[in-house]
Automatic annotation (TrEMBL), chains A, B, C, D:
Role of this protein: Removes 5-oxoproline from various penultimate amino acid residues except L-proline.
Organism from which the protein derives: Agrilutibacter niabensis
Family as reported in the entry's similarity comment: Belongs to the peptidase C15 family.
Name of the protein described by the UniProt record: Pyrrolidone-carboxylate peptidase
Transcription among keywords: no
Subunit comment: Homotetramer.
Amino acid sequence: MSATKQATVLQPRVLLTGFAPFAGETLNPSWEAVRMLHGRRIGGHRIVARQLPVEFGTALKALRAAIRDTRPSLVLCVGQAGGRASMSLERVAINVDDARIPDNAGASPIDLEIVRGGPAAYFTGLPIKAMLAALRDAGIPVEVSQTAGTYVCNHVFYGLMHALRNRKVRGGFVHIPYSPEQAALHPGAPSLPVETVCQGLRIALQVALATGVDHKLGAGAEH
Amino acid sequence: MSATKQATVLQPRVLLTGFAPFAGETLNPSWEAVRMLHGRRIGGHRIVARQLPVEFGTALKALRAAIRDTRPSLVLCVGQAGGRASMSLERVAINVDDARIPDNAGASPIDLEIVRGGPAAYFTGLPIKAMLAALRDAGIPVEVSQTAGTYVCNHVFYGLMHALRNRKVRGGFVHIPYSPEQAALHPGAPSLPVETVCQGLRIALQVALATGVDHKLGAGAEH
Amino acid sequence: MSATKQATVLQPRVLLTGFAPFAGETLNPSWEAVRMLHGRRIGGHRIVARQLPVEFGTALKALRAAIRDTRPSLVLCVGQAGGRASMSLERVAINVDDARIPDNAGASPIDLEIVRGGPAAYFTGLPIKAMLAALRDAGIPVEVSQTAGTYVCNHVFYGLMHALRNRKVRGGFVHIPYSPEQAALHPGAPSLPVETVCQGLRIALQVALATGVDHKLGAGAEH
Amino acid sequence: MSATKQATVLQPRVLLTGFAPFAGETLNPSWEAVRMLHGRRIGGHRIVARQLPVEFGTALKALRAAIRDTRPSLVLCVGQAGGRASMSLERVAINVDDARIPDNAGASPIDLEIVRGGPAAYFTGLPIKAMLAALRDAGIPVEVSQTAGTYVCNHVFYGLMHALRNRKVRGGFVHIPYSPEQAALHPGAPSLPVETVCQGLRIALQVALATGVDHKLGAGAEH
């Protein structure tokens, strides 16, 4: 067994992605939070942080390349959800792009499949109810979300789950609010500091790595 | 050809369902709107209205029985979404029950599949973008929704699409706001009169019956 | 006693005002509702409807002229509050103009007194708690509002109460939601049909005319 | 001149108040933020922090006693506004108590004057537009609010301005969001960390102490 292979065995990895800024913002809190964890060890895993572009197609290529490079045992993608007040553990990704605003490359796909002929949706591979309970106990605003939208975040989430469909690697997606600095320019918008998000991601990853079967904990919505 | 069969051929049908009251309400505006259209003719089709119970499992049995009885060429299920301000054309149903509040039979399933081993989701079978455009043009508040929740409405929507999966019958789901009478008891909650909803459903059905390929019209969400 | 004077005595009047369209809208539901009541009799009073311009200063001149002309025993001014879901019975008008958007004449006053040296605020002269109870009982979405904003509506409300300060004429202000036709162009915005608002105004006026001492009914806000 | 009097002259003071927990909460972020500033020096002033009870009447007695004790040159009262997303600089206090929920002593006054025969309202004595600009520049979510409600916060704000009406001491009120720990138990509610609020209060006080004439900066509302 080569030294490299040994190292891989001894140091399992988590791939953690954030996005580039979009929609006129100068920063993206998902990347700010994620990069603070780069190189850290959580639950016996080394965190590898990567930034994805906010571009349909290109974002997924970058994600797949990062998966090939890092051979992670778990992948968590993080994206900005301006207007939401809590960390949102996404339950499901759907096979459609429908862009209300153009992506960073100017593309605005409408009602296109992400994977031609792919399943309508993939559920998250992460124990979101156990993560919900742990974050709430830690005093971090959190909720389970029933939709990741139809923009680049959902695109990446769906593409991630499709890429992992035949592997033992688990994956999932978390949306986060604006940072306070961003909210200062969006009057009335809720926010969560990058440090709080960073702490929340650390807890979320610890729980995800340690939990086999998810908890039975209600977190549904009537509509 | 028997007289009955002839009648069926000459009079294609639309099955339109609403729900019983739930969550302490004394009426359900979905049923109030739907029953006003019972027996009417829209786009050459006779409307058959049926009420479904707000009960996991039982609701789907009632829906499947109504489909058997009426042999519709199109099925539209309608449900109340207290707190929403517009008629919501649902894009996708997901294969999970997660009840925040008990149903009318006292059941609160958590993270159970609706159809064991069924696909994670079904997309609507209706041209929701064409319906969106027509309703907006008619001055009726309307939006495309990316989640029908995880309660009895999503349960019925998913079960409907599963029941229709190998047939030529099209189906879909529309959520509607409280009626003004209900909103009067929920301070600050938005509403839409049953008459407006009824008019909206009529337009939605006309468009659904007349439209083959849906319009390319953006109605997505960033998250 | 002259015939005219007799007529005045026999036919007491209510002055009911709505506003012209503003902020890019093609109609203002306050005027649409108000003009439907012009000439009607409510509680023994003849309704006189007048439209006010959405212009600081000019609106108040028009209001004072209408009061001189009609010699009403009660004045109710009605304005559009896009984004609110209920009829809002305004509790208080404050002595400040602070325009977030220009008025219809292009003026954007910032932190100017409406009446130089006038009191900081006037409370409504109408029994808003009795009106609240009656509207709720009639199934019309309604709330008491603790702020009428700092734009032309508050300007008119304050100017009205200042004009009536030494008279026996009572006055007040009601904000109303978008009409459904407007909300169709503001995705996600709540609405109330002009007919419902019209019916609500009729009830509100009946109660206002018939009620001396207001009800003791909580309708406060923590913040 | 006695040593004590000299000390007073040399060390002007700011009185900063927060509230006790209420409405079932175990802490009140207004007090948590305020007490972190106790004893600090800001703009040449010593900060004296005091906690007020969430009780109509008693809260005002405690405030007036604190003013007598500390002889401040500026008073800022801070209160929790669960559901708001930003620090809210209150523009105006109105002369009415209308409690939707009982205070901590069980009292629920409805439509009672705070000061019998007092003016309908007092405007803040602080330069809230200059404070708004400074907080926004510092990246702290902030807004001007046109209503402080009708509960104990408005009660204290009105009582404060009444107490200061004939003095050269300036005063005002700021509402703050839930802390993240509180929001974790109110799904979907926005929050701001106590540390961020604390930093915001420090900036707000610096600006308030240094600003004579307020900025001309629009921060109004249409309704």
